[in-house]
């Protein structure tokens, strides 16, 4: 079984370098273009199951890429982006460079990051992402040939880092552009990364 795991297209907050988290920011025109280019590249691929984060930027990406072909997209709450609570909207560049910024550790020592009220830690996010694989993806082996997933940047990088056998705290070592595709192979209950970070625009 192959899993086509896609980060959503660009949003205005991506372009401005703002932390989005679970704030529901829609795709911008460039994000829609990225999704259309990805749809064209995958036009020959058929999917047996499809999942999306509940956030509209992921759901719209899935809708554009699938173009009405294949199964109905099932929304999985646990595919949502990392929840930064009241830290949403902060300037990512400032947070990366200012040790006094409450998000500084997220970028440099994420295992030590302390979430805002209502937010989640790296460990909580990693457990949630493991759960998606274990409860929703792996059980499809044998009944599905290809599965489509539309998710988010941090979620995808954490997932890939775990599959590489590394601690989740190393996920910042990976970069992930908007609408980047990763392909996973599931065989005998094991998951192997076939490709990651591929873009088609």
Structure keywords:
alpha/beta; globular; 201 residues; Rossmann fold
Task: Please explain how this structure is put together.
Keywords: Hydrolase. This is Histidine phosphatase family protein. One of its GO terms (molecular function) is hydrolase activity. The chain has one domain (2-13, 26-83, 121-198): 3-Layer(aba) Sandwich (Rossmann fold), CATH 3.40.50.1240. It is built from 7 helices and 6 strands. The chain is globular and about 50 Å long. The mean pLDDT is 97. The two termini are 26 Å apart. It has helices spanning 12-16, 29-41, 56-66, 92-97, 104-108, 122-137, 153-163, and strands spanning 2-7, 49-52, 74-75, 146-151, 181-187, 190-198. Strands 3-2-4-1-5-6 form a 6-stranded mixed beta sheet. With 201 residues, it is an alpha/beta fold. β2 (49-52), α3 (56-66) and β3 (74-75) form a beta-alpha-beta unit.
Layout of strands and helices, then pairs:
Elements: E1 2-7, H1 12-16, H2 29-41, E2 49-52, H3 56-66, E3 74-75, H4 92-97, H5 104-108, H6 122-137, E4 146-151, H7 153-163, E5 181-187, E6 190-198
Helix pairs in contact: 2-3, 6-7
Briefly characterize the structure.
The protein is α/β, with parallel strands linked by helices. It contains 7 helices and 6 strands, in the order E-H-H-E-H-E-H-H-H-E-H-E-E.
The ordered string of helix (H) and strand (E) elements is EHHEHEHHHEHEE
CATH topology: Rossmann fold
Number of spatially distinct domains: 1
How many β strands by DSSP?
6
**What is the CATH superfamily?**
Phosphoglycerate mutase-like
- Strand portion: 15-25%
Please state the structural category: alpha/beta
**What ranges have pLDDT less than 50 throughout 5 or more consecutive residues?**
none
EC number: 3.1.3.-
Keywords: Hydrolase
GO molecular function, one term: hydrolase activity
Organism: Mesosutterella faecium
């Amino acid at each position: 079984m192959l899993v086509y795991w896609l980060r959503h297209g660009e949003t205005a907050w991506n372009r401005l370098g703002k932390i989005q988290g679970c704030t529901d920011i829609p795709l911008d025109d460039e994000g829609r273009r990225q999704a259309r280019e990805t749809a064209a590249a995958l036009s020959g691929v058929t999917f047996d199951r499809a999942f999306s984060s509940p956030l509209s930027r992921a759901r719209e990406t899935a809708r554009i890429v699938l173009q009405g072909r294949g199964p109905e997209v099932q929304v999985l709450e646990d595919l949502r982006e990392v929840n930064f609570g009241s830290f949403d909207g902060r300037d990512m560049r400032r947070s990366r460079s200012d040790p006094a910024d409450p998000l500084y550790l997220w970028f440099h020592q994420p295992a030590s990051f302390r979430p805002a009220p209502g937010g989640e830690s790296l460990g909580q996010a990693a457990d949630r992402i493991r759960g998606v694989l274990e409860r929703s993806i792996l059980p499809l082996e044998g009944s599905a040939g290809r599965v489509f997933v539309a998710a988010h940047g941090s979620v995808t990088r954490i997932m890939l880092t775990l599959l590489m056998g590394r601690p989740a705290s190393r996920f910042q070592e990976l970069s992930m552009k908007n609408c980047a595709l990763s392909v996973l192979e599931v065989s005998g209950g094991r998951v192997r990364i076939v490709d990651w970070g591929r873009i088609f625009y």
